[in-house]
Structure formats: C-alpha cells, structure tokens
Amino acid sequence: MGDSWFVYDERLGIEVPDLEHEWETYPLEVRSAILERWETIRGRIPDRILALERRIRELQRQLDEEEDFETSCRLNADIAEQASRINDLNIWYRINQTIDSRRHT
Questions:
Q1: Integer distance in angstroms from the first to the last C-alpha of the chain?
Q2: Do residues 72 and 62 touch, judged by C-beta distance below 8 A?
Q3: Are 43 and 49 in contact (CB under 8 A)?
Q4: For 1-10, 19-28, 65-74, 81-90, which range has the lowest pLDDT when averaged over its residues?
Q5: Residue 58 and which of 4, 30, 35, 105 are 20 to 30 A apart at CA?
Q6: Do 35 and 99 contact (CB within 8 A), yes or no?
Q7: pTM, to two decimals
Q8: Phi, psi angle pair for 46, to nearest 5°
Q9: Three-state secondary structure readout of 38-86
C-alpha cells in the first residue's frame, strides 16, 4: 500500500514521492505514513551523495590522466551528470515535512 506513494528513480538511486493527489487531501493517518516512509528514504540520501562524490573523484582522476580529447569530453560529461544527480538529491533531502506531487528532477 505505502509503496504506491513512491516510485524508484533510477537516475538518483532512491525512491521519490509520486503522489496522485494534493497533499492536503490525504487523511492525516496516510500523510503520517507517507512522511514516515519518506524519512526512511531521506535518511539514505547522504550515503547516496557520498557514493556519487566518490565516483566524481574517480572520474576526475581518470580525466587527469587522459590524453584523448573525445574521452576527456565524455569524462567531463560524466562528471557533470554525477554533479547534477548530487544537486537533485540535495533538493530532495531538503524536502522534509512537505511532500507535494511535483517532481524536482
């Protein structure tokens, strides 16, 4: 039942809220259950960010050693994508007591 309020975001590596109705229309018990589930998911975001930061460091290390221009461009694009994921995760992390149906990714 509670899983229907969240959908797995492959890009971010976490579940994100996917509410069908306005927040205020859900009964208090349902909102409480959603918030409880969200806090569990939200608690994993810092670890996810750390993993992405490790990936960026590895890509930067590869970039430092890379001499091929096309490969360097690909590595730069990969670094930018990882940084974008971190930014989106930070946005989701700041959403704590108010979950709305808009996606922020």
A1: 24
A2: no
A3: no
A4: 1-10
A5: 105
A6: yes
A7: 0.83
A8: -60, -40
A9: HHHHHCCHHHHHHHHHHHHHHHHHHHHHCCCHHHHHHHHHHHHHHHHHH
